């Protein structure tokens, strides 16, 4: 477990203050979330804090808060604001095949985060990237597991097969979250759960919030499958570039291994997700096609916002975090 995060505004301050009390106690009214910035720091950390109650929780926070009706009402309003912004920022379509095919087409020349890190990234930027992604990768497969009881037949069986790989194929040391923890240690960073949450800004937190939002709502199961597919399809090429970046910088083997593992695994997962999970799901529930597309495009939207934030900060030679990492900068090994 971990400590409650630092508030970033009135919403998150109200959530944090509530969780410090013993239930039953009044929760902040849902109206507090009206007209808040859907992309802002305050909503991002308030929603993430509410969601974390469904994962590992926080030190000294009663587990009874997880299903408190008042807190759920506030979370529902936060979700409404966030989901509205996601839908407004994406184009509706039911062309699942076309949208998935688009993910396989990379612009030339590439100008994304993995391209930057491979070609000219510095070690301090790589370490910042790891801190950002720790909020995601240390719980990487967990939100996707929530969709399992909401699927049937081949879609369920195949998604479980992908998750089995994500969870290490039955071997604790090979769980992908553990591999990322090993990466953090190899880079001289903390592998503790949510250790960097207080320095990671909203663009990265929003990606994790999307996973939790889609996983916790049965009505968004199609979007969760779309999100999962988008993550698996786009990971292999970017992981290859990141492995090359780490080789160039002489990073520890644990750092390189995390990405080389994903190059191989996710190339296989891409085909399973497209053919066996999405294909079977839409054979059974064709009306979910638009939701699958939404999951893909919402993922692209948020990953694009994060990339813009990272590259903009690094282009100014500034930290992309809310404050610089507070650990010594070790030299990469040669």
Strands, count: 0
Principal-axis shape equals globular
Tally the helices. Answer: 13
Distance between the termini: 35 Å
What can be said about the biggest beta sheet? none
Which structural category fits the helices and strands?
Answer: mainly alpha
Strand proportion, as a percent range, falls in under 5%
Q: Compute the gyration radius: what is it?
A: 19 Å
Unreliable segments (pLDDT under 50, ≥5 consecutive)? 327-331
Mean pLDDT: 93
Q: Could you estimate the helical fraction of the residues in percent?
A: 55-70%
The helix/strand order is HHHHHHHHHHHHH
Please characterize this protein's 3D structure:
The chain has 334 residues and is mostly helical. The chain is 61% helix and 0% strand. It has helices spanning 10-19, 41-52, 69-88, 96-103, 113-119, 123-137, 142-145, 153-166, 176-186, 202-216, 221-249, 253-284, 289-315. The longest helix is centred in the C-terminal third of the chain and has 32 residues, at 253-284. It is globular and about 50 Å long. Residues 327-331 have low confidence and may be disordered.
Main features:
334 residues; mainly alpha; 61% helix
Compact description:
By secondary structure, the protein is an all-alpha fold.
Topology readout:
Elements lengths: L9 H10 L21 H12 L16 H20 L7 H8 L9 H7 L3 H15 L4 H4 L7 H14 L9 H11 L15 H15 L4 H29 L3 H32 L4 H27 L19
């Amino acid at each position: 477990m971990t400590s409650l995060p630092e508030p970033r505004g009135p919403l998150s301050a109200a959530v944090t203050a509530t969780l410090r009390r013993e239930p039953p106690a009044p929760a902040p009214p849902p109206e507090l979330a009206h007209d808040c910035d859907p992309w802002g720091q305050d909503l991002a950390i308030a929603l993430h804090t509410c969601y974390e109650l469904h994962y590992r929780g926080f030190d000294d926070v009663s587990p009874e808060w997880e299903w408190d009706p008042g807190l759920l009402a506030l979370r529902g309003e936060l979700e409404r604001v966030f989901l509205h912004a996601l839908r407004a920022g994406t184009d509706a379509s039911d062309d699942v095949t076309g949208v998935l095919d688009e993910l396989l087409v990379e612009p030339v020349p590439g100008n994304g985060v993995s391209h930057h890190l491979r070609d000219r990234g510095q070690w301090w930027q790589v370490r910042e990237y790891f801190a950002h992604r720790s909020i995601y990768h240390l719980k990487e497969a967990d939100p996707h597991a929530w969709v399992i009881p909401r699927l049937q037949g081949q879609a369920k069986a195949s998604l479980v097969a992908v998750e089995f790989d994500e969870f290490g194929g039955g071997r604790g040391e090979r769980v992908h979250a553990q591999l990322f923890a090993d990466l953090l240690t190899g880079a001289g960073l903390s592998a503790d759960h949510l250790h960097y949450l207080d320095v990671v800004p909203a663009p990265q937190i929003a990606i994790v919030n999307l996973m939790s939002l889609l996983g916790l709502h049965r009505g968004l199961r199609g979007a969760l499958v779309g999100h999962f597919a988008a993550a698996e399809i786009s990971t292999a090429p970017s992981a290859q570039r990141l492995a090359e970046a780490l080789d160039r910088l002489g990073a520890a083997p644990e750092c390189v291994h995390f990405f080389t593992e994903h190059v191989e695994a996710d190339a296989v997962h891409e085909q399973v997700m497209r053919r066996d999970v999405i294909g079977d799901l839409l054979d059974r529930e064709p009306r979910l096609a638009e939701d699958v597309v939404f999951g893909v495009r919402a993922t692209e939207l948020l990953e694009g916002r994060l990339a813009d934030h990272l590259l903009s900060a690094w282009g100014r030679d500034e930290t992309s975090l809310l404050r610089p990492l507070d650990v010594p900068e070790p030299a990469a090994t040669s």
